[in-house]
């Protein structure tokens, strides 16, 4: 281990590994974006990355040295001797973009990873710091790829026509010269497949589920957090027991019960059953937050003559807005994405939710681009809602973790 804790050795190893990561990433990105063949050369990536890592780690030549390293990497890629190999079918423009992107991203990120490493031997802290920075960068790239690649494939497929998909189903580039014709699948979704109704149904059901859940979860969570009654501890520990039973086990009894009562194929039936799955998790999340609120504030309200309900309405709820926002968002996402119950209980297309409507598109008679377009329509609203309210969700989920 002591042999590794040397500037030259550490820089060479981390530089080589980082070049493999970046060359693979750039190859995937450019292949998806342009449809041209790009692939990393692992051996050349190790050689170029190790050599460049030593130069950048020892800060040889300063900024001029870094620029020369970037130029050398880009030139090697264009000549077919670099970490990134370009197919003969690729255009000169896409090859140049890939080479420059790889060179600049490697030099810039390597300087950050190998920043402040002294010449010669490294202390354990300095060595571990460089390794952690490398692993952090790798983690960002890896998890970003896991999230973005499926979504990118989904979006690009939705913009294709049937002829393009049949010709090359793995070509995820787009022809911008088609203009608005790219969005014909989305137009057909709303004009031929009634997706506007599905959107309205899902939105209505999700909003009603949020209100019903909060109406039951707020007083329940407050009672568990503040009031003293027999069985309180057992109730608090058993709130999430319903999640120990898979929903598929309950699906058949629910189906039979709803069929006997006439609630099957009814949006009101869906609104009634969804809170059963969301109230426990809302109770669990809110009780932790309520416990973290200072009890003295509520006691002061009671001493001023407020009733318990008035204390909840005027004191507890205003202080709990971050938690309520996060719980509401979480419940909305559960209701929006729920599929099993909607699939079992809804048969009338006019009452389909988005998830049920997307399932109806999964047919050999319906082009695949319509299925992907439906998935985009279902994903984008909830993604925008999450990104817009993410700070409230983070604050609400963590605020109740520490009491006082």
TrEMBL record:
Q: Where in the cell is it found?
A: Cell membrane
Q: Which domain of life is it from?
A: Bacteria
Protein name (Swiss-Prot/TrEMBL): Carbohydrate ABC transporter permease
InterPro entries with a match to the protein in the record: BP-dep_ABC_trans_perm, MetI-like
So where does this one cross the membrane?
12-32, 38-57, 64-86, 92-114, 134-155, 198-222, 234-256, 268-290, 311-336, 371-389
Q: Which GO terms describe its cellular component?
A: plasma membrane
Membrane topology listed for this record: Multi-pass membrane protein
Q: Which UniProt keywords apply?
A: Cell membrane, Membrane, Transmembrane, Transmembrane helix, Transport
Q: Does the keyword Membrane apply?
A: yes
Its family? Belongs to the binding-protein-dependent transport system permease family.
Q: What is its main location?
A: membrane
* Residues annotated as domain ABC transmembrane type-1: 199-389
Look up keyword Protease and say if it applies.
no
Name its GO BP terms in alphabetical order: transmembrane transport
Q: Which organism is it from?
A: Gymnodinialimonas ceratoperidinii
